[in-house]
């Protein structure tokens, strides 16, 4: 862990926390509509805002962001920016509170980065080292992510078109896996990414079907007109937001963070091209959500529509260029906020596609992480792992405060690894040969 990495992650934590403290940006989409009730309407107190932020974010930090990060040694951005949302709302809305927010946000970013490495090193010292097995949690994601366009098409346009998209994507996957490696005249071997080509095929069909949906509306145009002052507020803070977007891109280029579990697993496996494609598809899905909530609330996201992650992935090992280009991308996003929102009125299918992309990616992730957790658990405790994960998953459904489905697989695998070590110390468990 070099000083540059700590400076970048610390600066990101500080900036994101201060933006939340002043009501300029929050990462949690569910919290964004709440901020105007405090900053603009004064309908709730600072204490109520802080309590709401904690309620909607803390469980995702502990139950999702950190467990997914441990398996790959890369921080899932949720574990960083959801906590900066909490810190920013809990610190007072004063100059001293702003400074305190920056210090605590930087401390969280640096502490989490060092702490994750400490946890990884600690696992390696355990009598039964299950860290290698945890790597299996992300294995199904690598191929499963290329399936989500077919699922999104099915959600939006029905089973037949979804099955067609998924079927042709599968055909491309098999075809490229079989014939995707060849030798150039100079003797250099070239391998085409099967998952990348599969994803491109599915996305092409997804966009084609969405564009074919006819009709126009004035929904976004009306939103822009009604909330013109809140759009101006975002544009007034576009320099600060752009700097934060640049820091997100820089941290991604240093392989410190990833925007979602799909690209995280791909980055961890060195598949940066596929990770960039996955991040790009996710960005498309978040345009309608981020832009619409930003227009209505006057509050943006510190990661924007998440295209800054694509920049960071494509510029691996070049944090300075990633910072510059990431800031520029965020600047362009905010400049086009009104125009892009109005443009979506002309393509209702594309506007609606965003919600279906997010739903499809979440469902694919839930299944992939559950299967990955089961595979990892079976490696940790052969003959018991599948029983354990299925039991945890179903019992979680009955809990008063259940974990989100995406977190069950990783959390179950980590818990089983800890239990196995305790049993070993009690001479009640012997590792498989």
From TrEMBL:
Residues that span the membrane, as ranges: 49-77, 98-124, 136-155, 162-180, 192-211, 239-259, 279-300, 307-332, 367-395, 407-430
Entry keyword annotation includes Membrane: yes
Keywords of this entry: Membrane, Transmembrane, Transmembrane helix
Coiled-coil portions: none
InterPro entries given in the database record: Uncharacterised_YhfT (IPR019733)
Entry keyword annotation includes Transmembrane: yes
Domain of life from the UniProt record: Bacteria
Name the record gives this protein: Transport system permease protein
